[in-house]
Design a protein that fits this description.
The protein has 463 residues and is α+β, with helices and mostly antiparallel strands. The protein is built from 9 helices and 21 strands.
C-alpha cells in the first residue's frame, strides 16, 4: 500500500485550529520523526510533529488534510514518537470525498505517548480528504494514511498523454537489481523530487553488468515517450539508460538501448507508441534517478475498469455529482445511486436505460431544464457539445422561443457533431409535432446525450 497523504505523494494541509508549538505540515513528512535534545524555539521545546497549545476551554483540536493521491483507505497510523507528556488522550478520524461532507471512520480512540499505533479501516469508498481530531490537545509526530489509489478522470483519460506508470493510477515497482540508498517506488510518485534521497539510487557497481528495475504499469497502453528525471543527481547520475517493454512480464522487447542521459536534468526518450503492461528501466552502470514518467495513452479496457472502480467507490455526495453531470433528473440520479455497485461498464449503461424507463413527465422536464438553451453558453462540457451552434445564436434564440411557446419546455437535441444549420432545421421540423409526441422525441435525445456523457466519463469511445 502507498501512503496517500505523505508530502511525497502530494498531500497538503488544508486547515487546522491551532499549531502553536509545532507545524501541522510535519505530519506529512516522509522521514521518521527525530528528537533534538537541546532544540528550543521562542514558543517552547522544538518537536518534530504537530503540537497545539494547552487547551483551557471545552472542545478539541483538529487538522484537515487533502490526500495527494485520492483512494480507498486501508490502514491509518498515528505516530506519537517523542511526545511523552504532551500527547493527546485520544483521537478520531473523519473522511470526505469532496472536502465538505464528513464521515467518521475511526471513532474516538485512546492514544499512548511515544508509540506508533496502526488501525485498520473498513471503508470501501474513495476519499479525497481526512480530518484528524485530537482530544483535547497535544502533539502527534506523523500521520500515515495507507491505501489503494483511485485516480480521477484527468489521470486516466484526458485528451493528451497520461503517466501510465504513476502511483496515482496504480503503477507498482516489482523488482530491482539494487536499492541500497532508496527504492524504485519513489520514481512513480506524482510530486517533484524533494532531494537526492527522494528517488532511486543504487550502490556503486564494482563489477560487470548494470542495474535495473521492473514495473507494472497502472494503466497498460501505448507508450509515446519515457522521461528519465535525474534532478538532484549530479555526480551520481547514470551514464546511459535502456528501456524494455512486455505484455506479460516474461517476454521483453528492447525499445531504447543505452541512451545517454544528462545529470540533474529531465531527459526524454521518444517511442513509437509501444504497447505494454510491464516496463523495465536499466541504468548503466549504476547511479540514481529522481523520477520516471511513462507517457502515453491508456487502452480503453483498463481505463474503463479504473473508471468503474472510481464510480463504485465514490461517497454518496460525490456519486450524486457524477450522475448529475450526465443527467439533471433527480429521479434518474436517485435510481442510479441505488444501482451501485456496477459489475461492468455494460451494466452502467443498462442501468441508465432502465432508470430512464421509470421516468414520468415531470422527471423528463426536470432533466430538460438542467440544460442551457441551444446556442446559449453552458459549462465546458455543454459548450463542447454545442460547438456547432457558434455563429447562429440569434437564429437559435428565435427558434428556442417559438419552441418553448409551443411545448412549454426547452428544445432538446443531441447537438454533438451537428452544425448550427442542422440544429435549426431539426427544431423547425419538430414544431409540427403534438406535445405528447415531442416529449417522447426530446426524451430520446436526452437518452442519447446521457449515454454519450457517460461514455466520455467512463473513458469509452463514443459513437
Amino acid at each position: 500500500m502507498i501512503d496517500l497523504i505523505s508530502e511525497a505523494a502530494g498531500g497538503r494541509i488544508v486547515g487546522f485550529n491551532d499549531e502553536f508549538f509545532a507545524e501541522a505540515e510535519n505530519l506529512l513528512k516522509v522521514a521518521n520523526p527525530v528528537w533534538k535534545e537541546d532544540a528550543y524555539t521562542d514558543r517552547g521545546k522544538w518537536m518534530d510533529g504537530w503540537e497545539t497549545r494547552r487547551r483551557r476551554d471545552e472542545g478539541h483540536d483538529w487538522c484537515e488534510i487533502a490526500l495527494g493521491i485520492p483512494g480507498r483507505i486501508r490502514r491509518v497510523t498515528v505516530d506519537t514518537s517523542f511526545f511523552t507528556g504532551n500527547y493527546p488522550e485520544s483521537f478520531s478520524l473523519e473522511v470526505s470525498g469532496d472536502g465538505v461532507d464528513w464521515t467518521d471512520v475511526i471513532a474516538q480512540t485512546s492514544l499512548e505517548g511515544d508509540i506508533s499505533a496502526s488501525f485498520d479501516v473498513d471503508l470501501d469508498r474513495r476519499v479525497t480528504h481526512v480530518r484528524l481530531c485530537i482530544y483535547p490537545d497535544g502533539g502527534v509526530a506523523r500521520l500515515r494514511v495507507e491505501g489503494d489509489p483511485i485516480p480521477a478522470m484527468q489521470d486516466v483519460c484526458p485528451d493528451g498523454e497520461i503517466d501510465l506508470a504513476s502511483a496515482v493510477v496504480g503503477g507498482k515497482w516489482l523488482a530491482a537489481s539494487d536499492f541500497h540508498y532508496s527504492p524504485p517506488s519513489n520514481l512513480l510518485l506524482p510530486s517533484q523530487s524533494a532531494g537526492m534521497w527522494d528517488g532511486w539510487e543504487t550502490k556503486r557497481r564494482r563489477g560487470p553488468g548494470h542495474d535495473w528495475a521492473t514495473f507494472e504499469l497502472g494503466l497498460p497502453g501505448a507508450i509515446d515517450r519515457v522521461i528519465a528525471d535525474t534532478t538532484h543527481f549530479k555526480g551520481n547520475s547514470p551514464g546511459w539508460i535502456s528501456f524494455d517493454v512486455s505484455e506479460d512480464g516474461d517476454e521483453w522487447t528492447q525499445v531504447a538501448d543505452r541512451v545517454p542521459v544528462e545529470k540533474d536534468s529531465v531527459n526524454e526518450i521518444e517511442l513509437a507508441g509501444e504497447h505494454a503492461r510491464f516496463v523495465r528501466l536499466s541504468i548503466h552502470p549504476d547511479g540514481g534517478l529522481a523520477r520516471m514518467r511513462v507517457r502515453g495513452k491508456a487502452n480503453p479496457g483498463p481505463a474503463g475498469e479504473k473508471r468503474l472502480e472510481y464510480l463504485n467507490a465514490l461517497l454518496e455526495t460525490a456519486a450524486t455529482g457524477f450522475f448529475r453531470a450526465a443527467c439533471g433528473s433527480e429521479a434518474w440520479v436517485e435510481t442510479m445511486l441505488m444501482s451501485r455497485p456496477f459489475a461492468s461498464l455494460d451494466e452502467v449503461f443498462a442501468a441508465a436505460e432502465s432508470a430512464f424507463d421509470r421516468l414520468n413527465e415531470s422527471d423528463w422536464l426536470d432533466a430538460f431544464s438542467s440544460h442551457p438553451r441551444i446556442g446559449e453558453k453552458g459549462d465546458k462540457v455543454e459548450s463542447s457539445e454545442q460547438a456547432g451552434s457558434a455563429g447562429h445564436e440569434e437564429q437559435l434564440a428565435a427558434i428556442n422561443a417559438e419552441y418553448e411557446s409551443r411545448f412549454d419546455f426547452i428544445y432538446i437535441v443531441y447537438a454533438s457533431g451537428k452544425s448550427g444549420e442542422e440544429m435549426l432545421e431539426i427544431a423547425k421540423s419538430r414544431l409540427d409535432n403534438e406535445r405528447e409526441t415531442e416529449l417522447k422525441v426530446a426524451a430520446g435525445e436526452q437518452r442519447k446525450i446521457t449515454r454519450t456523457r457517460l461514455s466520455r466519463m467512463l473513458c469509452q469511445e463514443t459513437s
